[in-house]
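Thread title: Can someone regenerate the structure for this chain?

I was given the following input by a collaborator and told the matching structure tokens would be attached. They weren't. Posting the sequence so someone can regenerate them.
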Amino acid sequence: MRTLTHDLPARLLYAVKANPNPAVLRVMRSEGLGLDVVSPGERVLAERLGFAPEQVLFSANNLTDAEMRAAQESGVLLNIGERSRLEAFGQAFPGARVCLRLNPKVEAGHHEHVVTADARSKFGIPAEEIASARAVAEAHDLRVVGLHQHIGSGIRDVAPFEQAVRVLLNAAEAFPGLEFVNVGGGIGIPYRPDQEPLEADRFQRAVGAPLRHFLEAHPSGGLSFWFEPGRFLVAEAGVLLVRVNTLKRASGRVFAGTDSGMGHLMRPAVYGAYHGVYNLSNPEGPLKPYDVVGNVCEGGDVFARQRPVQQIREGDLLAVLDAGAYGMAMASTYNLRPLPAEVMIRPDGRLDLARRRRPPEELIDALLEAEETAATRSPTAPASPAAY
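Best answer:
Regenerated them for you:
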């Protein structure tokens, strides 16, 4: 990322959805990054961790009126990708600053679920409708200070970025008062051993060149280019450690059952995603094929199928690699299995507990406490569903 931005007026926003652990966000703040937040919860977390409103871009989609008002009143900049929401925002806050999210109709991403800019996507104002969006903004004296796009996630090919950036810059011609153009995020990492990372030099030529040309053609000053890396910054920094407690042979396969599961890393079940598996307890062992599986009551609870791993024995500790992005961020307590502890390794080698492991009893206590709290509300009159 530095290779691309070193000679451009640029700003980095970390995409909180990739990993919202407060310890991670504090590192981002110390490094001077802002935040891309996509929900009211992420916005409140940013506020409580000391991020100033001007360091935060609020890119939630399908907002309620209450969420919109709370965000605007907090001082963060709203990034709006629906004309109807832009209309509601203009009516509520005429003259306000706003960013518009465009859909450049460029399809890219490691799985169809993470493609966010094709013709079927719920995200963004279609680029061909930019004139009508501008008319809505002008009708309410809104100041469009930024244009944004995000085409997908896990992309290692530069061609989609180049295509989308050109669409974005073409749209930017209609907004002479822009303060920034936000290229978005989506840069992938090589999860598989046969994959290569995105080539920085090619990215520089494909994306950096049109940005420089646009800047040269609009030398009024003050315009900057924003990027929103998430996975790119944290995926390779995270490892899920699991303990093998069961070896089972059936139908010509060997199943290595672990004390973790899809509740702790959903990506294989949701996307069919590949994560490397390494036997820390037997690193020099011969490679043998295993189905590495979890402890959740689902047939899809599988980390790897027929994967060559150093010979596994019951009690061995396995590392599931590249789990720093969309690991704990997507985790759940399905089957009432607690989340694992999270440990931060500091540059000096010091280990800090970033989140402790909660025993099952605490989960049950919280579940029963919620029920008891609801029972004591005892409304005197039937309330509408919106009251809950």
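The mean pLDDT is 90.
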